[in-house]
Amino acid sequence: MQSLPVARPEHVEYHGCAARREGARSTPVRRQAERVRQDTQVTTARRGAALLRRLPALDWIRIGLLVAGLLAVFTGLLPATEAEDSLRRIAPLLLFIAAVIVLATLTKKAQVFDTIATRLAIVGRGSYVALFLLCVAFASATTIFLNLDTTAVLLTPVFLALAQRAGIAALPLAMTTIWLANTASIVLPVSNLTNLLAAGRVALTAPEFAARMWAPQLAILAATMVFLWVLYWRRGRRGADRYVPAPPVRLEDSRQRTLFRVAAVSCLLFIGAIPFVGEHIGYAAAAAALVLVIAFAVLDRGALRLSLVPWRLLIFVTGLFLVVPTLSIHGLTDVMTAVIGTDPGAEGAFRAAAAGAGLSNLVNNLPAYAAGETAVPPGNHDQLLALLIGTNAGPIITPWASLATLLCLESCRVYGLPISVRRFALHGFGLAVVAVGVGVLALLLTA
């Protein structure tokens, strides 16, 4: 029988020493790796904390609204079926919001808005009357066809930059965008998120909606123009008789010119599709945005960032349409019904408009419309459209009354343009009363 080899003690000692030496060598490496891992975790945590500290108060409100809505669903305050119905209803709206903001932002990067605004000043030839009419037309068209948030986010900075380049008083241009972002958002479903909701409730296509709302829109625009001219644009307010037109925007190379053309064509195709796509307006906006995204991916990839997606607005709208149904179930509908009433005639229309405008300035126009809609009987179409007039043309008194107003005022703050809150509220109150009143009257007269 052959015996197995027995390890000699010196071999065991040798291997043990080798293992200890290897362990001794690896210990500093392991310690260094552990320190690197810990430093990375600390750095990541610090960056996350710094990012959270940099979030504006408005962003915390948006996030808090979404968290509150989710908690309402998880705790059963909002039944799961109600939450599902609400989210299914706003899904096409979220697609539209995301697509149209991306489209508008890239259109601005392609210098389409800057070029148009500068050309308006040149066409005006130093006349403030001509510039006033051109700026009103441009801001109104942007709001009507590309949504009020486009005017707030993109046109306000363009107008403020134009004021600086041409030596024009900035306040008249700023108030033009602030007011028209709200008061020009009546006539098409795409003009305002509340319009999309109302159009679906009353089962109107885009042409039918426009046919019903053109008269209120014209009446409200006329009131807005009078208030703008008297309070901000007339000679005693603007501080000059004439202005010097700014030099035209120069597109330096073929790449910029190509992006400019693609952006302009994409916007025109989207606007042209509005009468034909009906409730699928989100798909039309997404298609136009996709064309422009592809063009930028080829010619200016650095402009394509995740920040193009308006996550703040998407979070706000999603949270809103979870919180408002919860409140409606637990008593808000009864309160709004008592305020608005159920009269299908003129009294009900004016009460709904006044309630919509008042609640918009207390909280915000989106929850004001969502809450008021639940109180209006399904058959009272004129009353619902009057509520819409109140929530669209009325939120111009308090800075938080509409998201568009908040965005415009933030642009003014960044630009360094001070706006008196007291003066803003007093002038806004006067316009809101007149604009909502003449808008509802026009709605009733053309019924």
UniProtKB/TrEMBL annotation:
InterPro entries: Arsenical_pump_ArsB (IPR000802), Cit_transptr-like_dom (IPR004680). Keywords: Arsenical resistance, Cell membrane, Membrane, Transmembrane, Transmembrane helix, Transport. Its main location: membrane. The keyword Transferase does not apply. It is found in: Cell membrane. It is a multi-pass membrane protein. The chain crosses the membrane at residues 60-78, 90-107, 128-146, 178-202, 214-233, 258-275, 281-299, 311-332, 384-412, 424-445. Residues 65-370 form the Citrate transporter-like domain. PANTHER family: TRANSPORTER ARSB-RELATED. Belongs to the ArsB family. Belongs to the CitM (TC 2.A.11) transporter family. This is Arsenic transporter. The lineage of its organism: Bacteria, Bacillati, Actinomycetota, Actinomycetes, Pseudonocardiales.
